[in-house]
Amino acid sequence: MKKKRILLLLLEIFGLLAIGGIIAYFTSGDTADNLITIGSNEIKIVEEFDPPDELTPNSTFHKDVKFENTGESPCYIRVAVKFTDMDIGKYCSMDYNPKWVEGTDGYWYYPDLVNPGEQTESLFTTVTIGDVPVETITGFDIIVYGESVQCLGDVSGTYEETWATYQKNKEGRP
């Protein structure tokens, strides 16, 4: 009888230890803090513009357009150029820099990574108004719209890959 009691006592002790171990296993934990830093991605237009006194057919004026990375992260830049008066826009041309790549989507792409504080080469430096009837020439603006996208984390992606990834993410595709 005494052996049975000792055996039961031992079983109870082992049972308690087992339950305590199981509870400890399931309540044991560890924490880790993951710091995620979002980079700042900003650009600004750097422009030199000498507006002509009068807009005339077959005239040229100076307009030098560049972009500066004012953010904290390297980025790629693309721009679109539009005229507020599409009729005059048909008669105007710019001396686009061959460094910039014309996309099929209406944007001009700067293929080099632009680091913080750096500028692109000029997009164009002159605007020429072609042979247009004088009555067609009215005041107009040239709108230069720029976008930037932070380069891929490993900085090995090309501008095409980076912009394609941006477009996929924008459209919500994996």
**Structural class by secondary-structure content:** alpha+beta
Q: H/E series, N to C?
A: HEEEHEEEEEH
Task: State the helicity in percent bands.
Answer: 10-25%
Low-confidence stretches: none
Strand content: 25-35%
Tally the helices. 3
At CATH level 3, the topology of the largest domain is: Immunoglobulin-like
Main β-sheet, spatial strand arrangement: 1-2-7-4
Q: What's the count of strands?
A: 8
CATH class of the largest domain: Mainly Beta
- Note the quaternary state here: single chain
Termini separation comes to 71 Å
How many domain regions? 2
CATH architecture group name of the largest domain: Sandwich
Biggest sheet architecture:
4 strands, antiparallel
Radius of gyration over C-alpha positions, nearest whole angstrom: 33 Å
Assign an overall shape.
rod-shaped
- What is the mean pLDDT? 83
Characterise this structure:
With 174 residues, the protein is of the alpha+beta class. The chain has two domains: 1-30; 43-170, Sandwich (Immunoglobulin-like). The protein is 24% helix and 30% strand. It has three helices and eight strands. The chain has helices at 2-27, 86-89, 159-170; strands at 43-49, 59-69, 75-83, 92-94, 101-102, 108-114, 126-129, 142-150. A four-stranded antiparallel beta sheet has the order 1-2-7-4, with no helix packed on it. It has a four-stranded antiparallel beta sheet with strand order 5-6-3-8. The radius of gyration is 33 Å and the shape is rod-shaped. The model has no long low-confidence stretch (mean pLDDT 83).
